[in-house]
Structures are given as C-alpha cells and as structure tokens.
Amino acid sequence: MVGTRRTLDGTRRSRVDSIVVEWLRECVEKHDCQGSTATLPSRVLDVSQSSEGGISLYVTDQEIEPYAALSHCWGGEVPMKTTTLNYEAQQNHIAVDDLPPNFKDAIEVTRRLGLRYLWIDALCIIQDDLSDWEVESREMSSIYGDAHLVIGADGAKGAEEGFLRDSPGYNSMHAGGKSALVAVVDDEQADVYVFECPEHYDTCSLLDKAILSEQYQDVVENPLSQRAWAFQEQLLAPRMVHFTKEEMVWECRSRYRCECTQFDDSRQRTSKDDWISGDTAKMGVQWYSFVNEVCVRQLTFKTDILPCLSGIAAQMEASMMGRYLAGLWEEDLLLGLTWSYKELQTRISPQQAPSWSWASLEGRGSPYWLLRQEWESIALKVPHAQILDAQCIPKGQNAYGAVSQGYIKMIAPFVRVEVMENHNAANEVNPSHWILKRLALERAVEVSEAGLQLPANADSHLSLDGHDFFYAVLIAEIACIKEEYIGPTEESEDSESDDSEYEPADDEQERKLWEGPSETFGLIIRERLAEESNRFERVGSFSEFARWNGESPFGNHKKQEVLNFFGAAQERTIMLL
C-alpha cells in the first residue's frame, strides 16, 4: 500500500498546536458546520488566565460567545465538582491544581485553541441538586449541539487519567519503529518510508459498537465509546476532537480526519440532516438504531436511560415524529411497540417508564433486534392494532426524561392464554422462554394441538404460579427492508461515455428495496390490579419466529399459524400501562 502519512513527531500536547488548531481553523473557515459563536449555557468555566493558577465558574447572561464542552468518563467519584455548599465559592475561584487530570487537560486544550469558556458537567451542574440536574440534562441538546468544539477524552477511563499524555499506541503511527527510510524528497519536504502497515480501525465510530467489537476482537476499545451518555454528546456535536488511546481524531459535519491521515475522509459521518429528515418512517428507524446503540453501552445509573437520550429526543420532537412517549414516538407508535430483548431483563426500580416502553427494563442488548447489520430498515407492513390515545407524565422537569406514569389506549385482537414454562431436552426451565396455549374450546378454527401453542419471550422474571390471567394481543406484521444500488439510471448512462469511471449523483442512482423476512408480532399482557378493570401491563412478547438462541420446540411458525391462533378473537379496547 502506498500513501501519505503524517509523521507524529513530538508529544501529543505539542501536536494540539500543530494539528488540532489547523483542523479547527479549516473547519471554521471552509466548512458549513456551525458558526463561530453561540449562546453560552447557563454556567461555564472561565478559563482565561486572568486569575493566577485558577479558573472560575461563570453564571452567564445568555451571552453570544464560542465555548468548548468536555465529553468524558467519570470513572467513579470525581474529586472536584460543584455542590450547593461550594457553589458561591466556585464562582470566585477554582484552583486548577485541585482538579483531576482530565479537567486540567481540557482547560489546556481550550486555552491552546484560543477559547475562553469551557463546559464540564461535574463543575457546571450542581451535583447534589436534583432539580438543577433535571433542568440542565434537558438542555444537553443545545449544550453539545451549540459548542464551538466538543473535546472527547476517549482514551481515559476516568477523571484521574488525563488524555494529553502519550501512549504506547502511538508507536505504530510514528515513522520510526518498525520502518526504514528509503528516500528523501527535498523539494517536497517529504520522506519515503517502508514499514509494516498496522491495522487501523475506526475507533470513533458512532454506531454499531456491539457489532464492531464482535468482528474485531483485537480492537482496543476507548472507554468513552462504551458509555451511553457519550453517544448523544458525540451525535449532537457539530465538531469534535477525540483524544483516543491511539491518536487524535477529528470529526465534523463535513470532514473526518485522523492524526496519521490514513482515515482522512474515508468515513461518512452521521449527519443531523440524516435523522432530522422530515420523513417519519426514516426518522423512526434512525431512532431505533440510536436506542439499540445506547442499550448496548454502559450506564452507571440505570435510571438515566431516558435522560441520556433526552438531547436527541428534544431535537426530533420538533420534527414530524409527534409527541415523545417514554422512548417511543406518537407517529410511529405501533412499530415502536415491537421491541423485544433476547435475554431476560430486570425491571428498573423505581419505575422510569411504563411497561410498554423498552426503557422500563435494565436492557443490555438491542431491543429492536431486526435492525441488524444485513437489514437497513424495518417497516410496518400490516397493522392489526389501532392506537386511540397515548399519554405520558414526566417524573421531573425534564420532559424527555423519566416518566412517572403513562398509558396507551388501543383496540386490537385479544385472547386469553395460558402461559407455561418451557423445558429443554434436559428438562431445565428457561425463565426467558414461555409457551402460550389457547384452549381449543375458545376457538372457531379447528387446528392441531401444536397449533394451539405459540413460543413467547418474557420481558423480565415472572412467577407463573397460575394466579394471574394472561392475554395475547396481536399488534402488527413488520418487515425487514434492505436498499440496494443496482446501477445508474438510463439518463446518467447517456451522460458519460466511459461508464467504468462514472459515479452518478445520488438523485441519478437507481435503487431497489428488497424485503427480507417479515414477522407477525404481539404482546403478552396481564391485568395490573384486580380492582382496576381493563388496566394491563406488558410482561412479554411473541412472534412467528421464536428467538430462543436458535432453538424452538415448534420450528418457525408461519404467519397464517399465528393468525389462526387468534381465530374468532374479538377486538377489544384496552388500556396498557
């Protein structure tokens, strides 16, 4: 392989001046990513060197000024943060020497880039004031979305590590090491080396962390990319510089750069225009991919699952998605209900979302599992239920955060079922897998005994002691969709004589939608309180394909068999809580 590569001389600290400053200058002057100024958050750190050896917490007056924001891993308890006790004192003076290395490094980068203001969550949010945290967390969309630059401490697993230090990972990026100088080009001021070409992974990819980590076991994951909160910080940032274990990486809405230049412009960044598109179906699927990504990442407090997406949700609600309903969307609600974890989960306590929301569970895994790498989209093919009304009441001051209560009122095919435990060949019970059975006497369609049963997945551990009445509700048939490029259109073919070198513009490309496997999906519900009739909670789901780690006692059901299970079922209006 022959190509250009930057020689990484000096220390990382010195290369901030020579590389990051140039990246930022190029973006501000040549790209259409964001203006140079924006409204300051309610509080920022004034890192100007007017006060000797210190900085201060500045309570703003909505001034229009550029600022940087830090995206980082706390790594446990942060040794310096703002509380109700030191809030007044922090506004006068904060000793930089008392700050952890990550904060010191962020201050140094901010100063080197010529910026005066810096936002760090631990210092700009009053940490022991729940009301202040709720107010500030709902502003994450503008805090990271309006920042002149987001500084990512990707390679540091905690505040005490720092991110400006050089690391062994740099050795493979230097022209030294396992390399030999073979030529010097004087008039170009360039050297030619031969060296072993190292694997160069996209360590700052925004999506598909779980897929990438499975494919590339030898990739050294950067701690920040494994954190749920960091996802929206990176997605919302108009421009961000990542200080990874390997090198510094730049991404903005126009360009992608890495320090050694091997990855320059080789990756298409997820643009805000892609997920604020005005197309409800497209935006819904994009949202489900965001949910999948956050659910496979680490979260210290499970109750933060909705707040850590609140900045993105705030951006999307202003579009055509309708009301935001505990992690789902009003205009795409039927499809949004078709989530299912492959493994048994635990209900979050205290409750953060209604039972019909994926956010009600401590999910580690992808709830929208059909959005796999080979399928680009899912679509609502045949609706069997109809949404009549839906409401959610926020638990605090963040309208996109935790929910105190909520309901969905729907009309759908509804049958009473017996829920039985599933035993494997060794007669062991798997609490994740259930068998639904409908009594033959209730059915108008005569089918075999096997046809009276459907495989189902439990959401969480639930005792099947026979005292609960369970019901199955048919929701919808959904389909997997893949879009493939099948060549230029006739018009574009005529416009160039050499087709082998012609790359048609996007609007000239002919594409074909391929429909993959479809799935008929439904919910398992039970009455929530005996004294409140027609009030139900979700406890599991079923489909024509049993997702039991490749095992099914029945084989794959066909769509007609699932529909037969609901033979003579009456449609009923229910309240799902």
Automatic annotation (TrEMBL):
Region (Disordered): 488-513
Bias type Acidic residues, positions: 490-508
Pfam families per UniProt: HET (PF06985)
Transmembrane segments: none
InterPro entries on file: HET
Limits of the Heterokaryon incompatibility domain: 67-233
Protein name (database record): Heterokaryon incompatibility domain-containing protein
